[in-house]
Specification:
Elements: H1 2-21, E1 32-38, E2 46-52, E3 58-66, E4 73-75, E5 81-90, E6 93-101, E7 106-113, E8 119-124, E9 129-134, E10 139-144, E11 156-159, E12 174-179, E13 186-191, E14 196-203, E15 208-218, E16 225-230, E17 237-241, E18 246-253, E19 256-264, E20 275-281, E21 287-293, E22 297-303, E23 310-317, E24 323-328, E25 334-339, E26 344-350, E27 357-364, E28 368-372
Length: 373
Amino acid sequence: MKRGYLLLVFALVVACKANEKTPKTREFHSDVSFYVGSYTGKESKGIYKYALQKEGVLKEMGLVAKTLNPSFLTKTTNKKTLLAVNEMNENGTGSISSYSIEKDSLRFISRRKTGGGHPCFVAVSESGFVIAANYTGGNIGLLKVDNNGELSELLDVQQHFGKGTTERQQEPHAHSTWFHPTKRNEVISVDLGTNQLWFSAIDTNNNEFVFSNKQTLKMANGAGPRHLSFHPNNKWIYVLNELNNTVSLLTTKNGNYVVGSSMSTLPEDFKAYSKSADIHISNDGKFLYTSNRGHESIAVFEVNLQNGSLKVVEYQPVYGKTPRNFSLSPDNNFLLVANQDSNSIVCFKRNFSSGKLQFVSKIYAPKPVCILF
């Protein structure tokens, strides 16, 4: 009896050890809704809502806000308000619209000017500061949003100046602007036209931008920086360069940002036209993804967790044309791509071990350019 008891205990210990070595599976438990921003016109009328169902099947839920060119979306930190740029140029400026997130719709709250033409990006801080990147204005605008979703009037504008070396870099073109995840009110703006990153902080007493000591950081000639992504360790920043199709690693030295290694987003043998669009990192920091318009793919990279360098994993076709913004689902099980010129959203299942993508489903979406969970 004693020997049998010891064998049972031994078997239980072995089983427990085996379970420790077996990684937990990441299962998708329920439907998750998301919003899609678009370029409006014949096909699209504004912001649409979709659902990501179990196993990656997509479902259209319909138009939830009729508005002009809502090309980039974000949510306030309390998840109660959605902000959408209106990428237009009316009397020299575009606008931002705010909406209350209701169960089955978006309820319009307010619309305010951004201080420059064709706003193409918006971000919001925990304290309610809102920053917009104005592409043709070549500047960034500052506003605030209150707990009820009401936007303030325009508080300040930071104008960029200078130019790069290519035809598309003859004047400033602010393409995105970001709050640093750990440095309170630090703002990094990405300007494709000047070929630089611009660094500033928000003076919360006067509600205005103040340039940092190191005002700008130049990228490689002709790079054309567009978007960036912060690594979860908050030590590395990856800059996506649209014009030369590269990702550049930013690190810090003596308190200043420096440009490190760069990696092409395209295969070596691809020589046709292509321009990079968007960039995201998995929550575990192990894989980085970029979209290629022209090559019509998502480039998958493995991140070296010791030094931040990248290694190509694969180039996944997007089954459509002009992949703009894409997004990882909240649980990181899926990656969804907005194919602007083929009017579709494509869903891929993501392998947590290899980072690779597997096609799951595809659905019609009119001129989609932004996906927001």
